[in-house]
Automatic annotation (TrEMBL):
It holds the Pfam family AHSA1. CDD domains: SRPBCC_CalC_Aha1-like (cd07814). This is Activator of HSP90 ATPase. Gene3D superfamilies: 3.30.530.20. Residues 22-159 form the Activator of Hsp90 ATPase homologue 1/2-like C-terminal domain. SUPFAM superfamilies: Bet v1-like. Belongs to the AHA1 family. InterPro entries: ASHA1/2-like_C, START-like_dom_sf. It comes from Ornithinimicrobium pekingense.
Length: 161
């Protein structure tokens, strides 16, 4: 399983996921840079993603939705702030309505995704910082640990295929 740690720190309002992938940094980066590849692993199993917008560049925007087994759609958006390919990118991440408009009453997190060579593959660290302890707790209560872990754990299988 690629996920090696999932930690939360209420003092710094962060949630951090560490994973080890059996592929080089450039290949892992390629997954995030290509919306058709990212769709294969973004979201937990059974909730396939569709990226409507995908611009992994500073100032770029991504919008997507995941489709539940019952057909309900869950939207999200990323506003990319910094890109240092293939090592890291930073972005704001929020929830969206079915028409992919940002939901103002839902938490927004600042994220840093970083990738470095390690143990013959790639060590990835995904850090999300929230504006309040309540916002962090809200996403935890929504099942972010289970959802993110199961999504990330699909990556090695996809990259090996």
């Amino acid at each position: 399983m690629p996920v090696t740690a999932f930690t939360t720190d209420p003092d710094t309002l962060t949630l951090t996921i560490t994973a080890q992938f059996a592929a080089p940094v450039e290949r892992v980066w390629e997954l995030y840079a290509d919306p058709r590849q990212l769709e294969q692993v973004w979201g937990p199993p059974g909730y396939p993603a569709t990226f409507v917008e995908h611009d992994l560049s500073a100032g770029g925007r991504m919008t997507y939705y995941m489709t539940a087994p019952d057909g309900e759609r869950y939207g999200g958006w990323w506003q990319i702030s910094e890109v240092d390919a293939p090592r890291r990118f930073t972005f704001e991440d929020g929830f969206a309505d079915p028409d992919l408009r940002p939901l103002a009453d839902m938490p927004v997190s600042h994220n840093v995704y970083s990738f470095e060579p390690a143990d013959g593959g790639t060590r990835a660290v995904f850090t999300s910082t929230y504006s309040s302890a309540e916002a962090l707790q809200q996403v935890l209560d929504m099942g972010v640990e289970e959802g993110a872990t199961s999504a990330i754990n699909q990556i090695d299988g996809f990259l090996a295929a």
